[in-house]
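User: For a benchmark we're assembling, each entry needs the component sequences followed by a predicted structure for the full assembly. Here are entry 17's components. Please fill in the structure.
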Amino acid sequence: MLKLRELEAALQEVEPFAEPRIELEQYPTSAHIAAHMAFTMENAFGDLLGKTVVDLGCGCGMLSIACALQGADHVLAVDIDSAALDIALDNAARLELEDDIDFVLADAPWPLALGPGARQVDTVVMNPPFGTKHNAGLDVLFLRRAIEIADGAVYSLHKTSTRAFLQRKAKELGAEMEVVAELRYELPKTYKFHNKQSVDIEVDFLRFDCSQRHCT
Amino acid sequence: MKLLTHNMLKSHVKGVKDGYPLRLSASKVELKEVTFNADFVVRMLDRIVWPVLRQTAIEIGQGDNLPTDIPADAATNEEFLRAMHHVLLEVLVLEGELECPETGRKFPIKKGIPNMLLDEDEV
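Assistant: Structure for entry 17:
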């Protein structure tokens, strides 16, 4: 298991999107944030070592790679964008993790089966589109599906302004939401319509406990 | 794509009731050694769909020694766990396709990545 500093250093090797697509809200997850997320998932909650993990909307694979480095046994990384997956595949290979991560090109609501009795997926991790501009409601669609497939927990990033709303949604879906950390998420000047060099927004790192959720 | 991933995938074409399991045909398969972790395989015993894993492995020529049912002593049966480990994690499908059992829709696998994207009229 890596120390936090080592994890973040390793994740600096992960290449970002070559040409981010605005309609998919392709903001890269920084090495710093991904390292903190994976470190916390394992060290505070034991949700990675020896577990199966799904990364919904994996983009260039930052969170998948972070989870694999923190001991996940099998990561299934799903994204709608084949160009992003090509980069993710290269990233995984560069870090010698290609054996730990499988990639699938797919769109919401994702072609994932729920398994025979116990669900097959322990942990879902994601940095979903914030669902604010061109894709209202997409954040909740991600969350709904994530809670459905996770046997243990879902970890996700959401705008702090949506916290109370997500708390209610989580309850409706049978999961217990906990704010693990409050972050300042720096959106680099990825797209032309951003005037300032970078924009800080307040983001919650959330954990949804799905273990009490009754199978239907 | 590992067969573990195949075990977790289904078809989500509009109107499909179950979409599971996807029928796998493979034109390029690679075997790659992965460190055996008995605990992981034991935990997958009641999570994977064994008949699907077995049948799929057989269809791509990798299921020679797999029993019809998971043995009663599976959790302590290292020979079985190693066989299951092999088909779950060490068989990589690089090229081929997945077929929806209900609609016959084919999803290509290229460079080990299944393309499950749907067309607009399939969503």
